[in-house]
Specification:
The protein has helices at residues 3-32, 42-48, 110-121, 196-205, and strands at 52-53, 63-64, 66-71, 83-89, 92-102, 128-134, 139-146, 149-153, 161-165, 170-176, 179-184, 191-192, 214-224, 232-243, 246-251, 257-260. The protein has 261 residues and is an alpha+beta fold. It folds into 2 domains: 3-68 and 183-260, Lipocalin (Beta Barrel), CATH 2.40.128; 73-177, 2-Layer Sandwich (TATA-Binding Protein). Strands 1, 3, 4, 5, 6, 7, 8, 9, 10, 11, 13, 14, 15 and 16 form a 14-stranded mixed sheet that branches. Strands 2-12 form a two-stranded antiparallel ribbon.
């Protein structure tokens, strides 16, 4: 990466971070206007309203920071010799396998075998995590991760790695996008973040968890609500919380709440 491009990416990254932080601050102020106090503990209040948490919560104290992702423009030059690059479009590389990779029925689960293929055959494959298998389209999807946590973009609608299978359950082709991810430390270091139960309390105090609800998902991830600006994108550490059929994202640093329909 030459100095001119590096300087441009650096400037864009911090401009996006400033916009992101301003947006989060506004959301936090809005959410704080809807609040009430109670002497009872959160667990007691949830129990009184018949609200149940059906997943395990993260108990350890975590630290986190904002991160930036820059599209890896040289990805096509890193593809192994026994694979053919068919096209490069919209920052995705489409790759054809010279030797299809079989997924064996009755052996390990499909997603375990697919993950092994990704680790062994795909550039930076260890940084991807299984998402889901679309049996109708015969496509297996993966997220990219940062330090083991999912990196997600609500606006994109497209996961960064897709494996295409044929009717014989063989991987014949894949499409890949890869972000070079770096931490951003506005305060010079990683910050302590709110716990998963505190994130649930944020939703409860904002009256976003109705009586008789089930909290079905509590997951730490990195999430962006903004489209990439050129090659650069900024992500915030978020608690992804499922309440019945609704998904909320709670910023793990400042507690701001976003609703995903």
């Amino acid at each position: 990466m030459d100095w001119s491009r590096a300087k441009t990416i650096f400037i864009i990254t911090f401009l996006l971070l400033n916009i992101f932080l301003g947006y989060q601050l506004n959301e936090k102020k809005t959410a704080s206007n809807i609040n009430f106090t109670a002497e009872a503990t959160l667990q007691e209040r949830l129990s009184e309203m018949n609200i149940t948490i059906v997943v395990d919560l993260h108990e350890e104290q975590l630290t986190g920071t904002y991160i930036s992702g820059t599209t890896e423009l040289s990805l096509e030059t890193q593809i192994p010799d026994n694979q053919e690059v068919l096209m490069v479009e919209d920052e995705f590389v489409t790759v054809l396998l010279e030797d299809p990779y079989p997924l064996l029925q009755g052996e390990q689960s499909i997603h375990v075998q697919a993950k092994q293929f990704v680790v062994d055959k795909v550039v930076n494959g260890q940084e991807y995590r299984y998402s889901h298998f679309d049996r109708e389209l015969m496509q297996i999807y993966f997220y990219q991760t940062y330090e083991g946590k999912k990196v997600d973009n609500y606006e994109s609608g497209r996961l960064p790695l897709m494996l295409q299978l044929d009717e014989d359950m063989e991987i014949v082709m894949y499409e890949q996008n890869y972000l070079t991810i770096l931490p951003i430390h506005p305060q010079g270091k990683e910050q302590e973040v709110i716990s998963s139960i505190k994130a649930i309390e944020k939703l409860f105090n904002a009256q976003l968890i109705p009586p008789d609800s089930k909290i079905t998902k509590v997951e730490w991830s990195y999430f962006s609500f903004f489209k990439p600006h050129g090659e650069v994108q900024v992500f915030a550490p978020m608690w992804n919380i499922g309440v019945n059929d609704q998904i909320y994202y709670v910023n793990a640093i400042d507690g701001a709440i976003q609703n995903i329909q």
